[in-house]
Amino acid sequence: MVQHRPGGDAGAPTMRDVAARAQVSAMTVSRVLKDDSRVSEATRERVLSAVDALGYRRNETARRLRLGGSGMIGLVVTNLANPFYSRLALGVQEVAYEHGLRVLLSNTAEQVDRERGLVEDLAARQVDGMIVVPAGGSHRHLAPAALRGMPIVLASRPPAGMDADCVLVDDFDGAEEATGRLIEDGHRRIGFLGNPPALYTGAERFRGYWAAHEAAGLAPDERHVRRGLVDVPTAERAALDLLRGTDAPTALFCTNNRLTQGAIRAVRALGVPVALAGFDDFDLADVLGLPLTIVSYDADEIGRRACQMLIDRINAGPGTPLPARRTVVPTQVIRYGTDPR
Fold first, then answer.
1. Which CATH topology does 15-58 take?
2. What DSSP string describes 163-215?
3. The dihedral of CA 197, 87, 316, 115: what is its sign?
4. HSE on the CB side for 127, CA within 13 Å?
5. The domain 171-296: what is its CATH number?
6. Cα 89 from Cα 128, distance rounded (Å)
7. Beta partners for 105?
8. What is the pLDDT of residues 12-32, one digit of tens each?
9. What is the model's pTM?
């Protein structure tokens, strides 16, 4: 049994514990963990058996701190008022905590200049790396070369003008499937409420909306498309305008939870039977009594994957050549309520 060590974690096994159990030196344990070819197979198996029995985990954070790391990472998002980003932050914090890292959180409000300032400030504080949900159409100021080699991972939006690891949502397929469900329900006039088209998510979700129509042999009506919406009030006004118009849509597709909530307000105000579909699940969506088709995904998982990618970069050390990686979090469509038609 591993005893409590003063100044350490109760019960946390060390390399010396592994060495004692395997009856080898700590140096031999280190060589096994580094996959050193000079260690015999019999010794390797004995050491790995001791590692498994004790539940030993190499303390990469301690090693990093000894090499001059800060033990902190930065997280820069675009809108803390959006529940998506709070869930993403929780996912980042979960993995960071497991590795003994602290997270410094900042908000850009989709302003590139503010993002530049925050990133420069975090770099000046010598954080070990950064996770950024980027604003704007060019991300060259986020390239490691511009940040003195600091590791960086992008979340929710892919890199533009530079190479970097990134974690994305399956925006296109989610939008196509949700719009397709509305078409299967018999809707032929489906309005679109979208965030700014310059945003990757807005462009991909519009592309999915359009592709679902084309797959069904339909042509979306441009009069029913509203893009560039940024919050609940702008979405509500756009939905009211669409639903009061001639030949109004019988359904609306919205590209994020805030726009869906704006559409719900408009539908409630007018009292019209309109089916709604949108990206991002949200609290109480299941008890509203409205026909809702929601594209859901694990926002925490985006944060978890991004943080693990960043830790991989940090642990690899400066100058280690690793190709840029991209991973996509899948979506699923959830149906709430019933179609009123």
1. 434 Repressor (Amino-terminal Domain) (1.10.260)
2. --EEEEE-HHHHHHHHHHHHHHTT---EEEE-S-TTSHHHHHHHHHHHHHHHH
3. positive
4. 25
5. 3.40.50.2300
6. 17
7. 75
8. 677 788 889 999 987 788 778
9. 0.75
